[in-house]
Design brief:
By secondary structure, this protein is of the alpha/beta class. Helix content is 32%, strand content 21%. The protein contains five helices and ten strands. The strands form two sheets. An eight-stranded mixed beta sheet has the order 3-2-1-10-4-7-8-9, sandwiched between helices. A two-stranded antiparallel ribbon has the order 5-6.
């Protein structure tokens, strides 16, 4: 697959839908930022009392079962242990990817052999995104969707290149919504650079 994804240009925000998870941090910033422009968010969950957002969408059992399969596919590349206890969250990540055509995530990249701040060692087959966000991002890659990640540590946007099977740097002015249905997700620990990165994408697009 090549790396050419068509730009849709400036669009009416009311036509845009962000597919997200409603978690505190990046998910909420995507949701609230798009809301200010007049766009809408579908904030997915699966049988939990902790998700109480106004845009909550309960996923179907069919989508949840699909999600379990997609989590295991993603983990063939990520090689993480103990994922079953978080399956409700990770399987619902699949729906964010399934119903959108572009993935935009805020987080931190962990390259092969590197560790995160908590000591997690990337034993996987490629560069991954830290935390649970990494599963949604990997699902997007497996399903051949355009994937963009803002690395907060480097304050730098990256795009997954299907030509080189790794992330390549992007100028922030070149990161925009390539489809009206997009996944806007990321770390709970979003910082000021992450907030600005989200706003820049929307400024570039809407």
């Amino acid at each position: 697959m090549n790396d050419i994804f068509g730009k849709i240009g400036k669009v009416d925000p009311s036509l845009c839908t962000c597919h997200s998870g409603g978690a505190s941090g990046s998910d909420t910033v995507w949701e609230e930022s798009l809301d200010r422009y007049g766009g809408k968010t579908r904030s997915y969950s699966y049988k939990t009392k902790f998700h109480i957002g106004s845009n909550k969408v309960e996923i179907s059992d069919e989508d949840y079962q699909e999600g379990i399969k997609e989590v295991h596919k993603a983990n063939q590349f990520m090689k993480r242990h103990g994922i079953s206890k978080y399956m409700n969250l990770m399987a619902r990540n699949w729906v964010q990817v399934k119903y959108s055509n572009q993935i935009l995530a805020i987080g931190n990249l962990i390259r092969i052999g590197e560790t995160n701040t908590k000591g997690y060692y990337n034993k996987g087959k490629c560069t991954v995104v830290d935390g649970g966000t990494g599963f949604a991002v990997m699902m997007g890659i497996i399903n051949q969707k355009p994937v963009f990640v803002f690395d907060q540590g480097e304050e730098q946007w990256y795009k997954w290149s299907y030509n080189v099977s790794d992330y390549i740097k992007m100028d922030s002015s070149d990161v925009y919504l390539a489809d009206q249905n997009f996944t806007g997700i990321g770390t709970r620990g979003i910082n000021e650079s992450g907030v600005k990165a989200i706003e820049q994408v929307l400024v570039n697009s809407l």
